[in-house]
């Protein structure tokens, strides 16, 4: 039996399946809870209005993540975004050490936060991240390497 794409009658199930993943992705890229919520909502609106017939659940997931990443990048490029100051002073984490690491991750440029989140938190491969972000695999690998190096420097400074 072929995979049935989400239509209005089962749209709630689509939202339930993907809302947390899309929110975490948007939060990792934007670093702002309100922006992440707005972008996830916009991604679901686009899915409701324009979603293609999905071939599988993986296709559905990839399409939604791609739309969310594109919306995040559009927001980060907007001139309005460059003129505001974020209000969030601390980020939620289970332990103080994790809180410090998360704050350091949020200081990284968006391109590094994106690949780190998609690789470590979402469990995507470099090839998948390449498809989701529209970058070459070599670019994704180098961004992961640079992000790890920056975090390594931070962790070494913390130990001293």
Characterization of the model:
The chain is mainly alpha-helical and 160 residues long. The protein folds into two domains: 1-89, Rna Polymerase Sigma Factor, Chain: A (Orthogonal Bundle); 90-160, Arc Repressor Mutant, subunit A (Orthogonal Bundle). The chain has eight helices and no strands. The protein is globular, with a radius of gyration of 17 Å. The model is unreliable at 1-6 and 87-91 (pLDDT under 50).
Fill in the keyword field for this structure.
160 residues; mainly alpha; Rna Polymerase Sigma Factor, Chain: A; Arc Repressor Mutant, subunit A; 2 domains; 8 helices; globular; disordered N terminus
Rg over CA atoms, rounded to whole Å, is 17 Å
How do the helices and strands follow one another from N- to C-terminus?
HHHHHHHH
DSSP strand tally: 0
In oligomeric terms, what are we looking at?
A: single chain
Tell me the β content: under 5%
| Largest sheet composition | none
């Amino acid at each position: 039996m072929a995979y049935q794409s989400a239509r209005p009658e089962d749209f709630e199930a689509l939202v339930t399946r993907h809302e947390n993943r899309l929110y975490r992705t948007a939060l990792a890229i934007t670093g702002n809870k309100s922006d992440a919520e707005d972008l996830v909502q916009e991604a679901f609106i686009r899915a409701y209005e324009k979603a293609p017939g999905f071939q599988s659940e993986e296709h559905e997931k990839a399409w939604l993540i791609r739309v969310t990443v594109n919306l995040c990048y559009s927001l980060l490029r907007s001139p309005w975004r460059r003129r505001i100051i974020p209000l969030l002073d601390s980020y939620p984490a289970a332990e103080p050490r994790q809180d410090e690491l998360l704050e350091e991750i949020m200081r990284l440029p968006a391109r590094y936060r994106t690949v780190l989140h998609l690789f470590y938190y979402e469990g995507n491969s470099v090839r998948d991240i390449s498809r989701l972000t529209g970058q070459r695999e070599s670019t994704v690998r180098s961004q992961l390497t640079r992000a790890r190096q920056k975090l390594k420097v931070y962790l070494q400074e913390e130990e001293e």
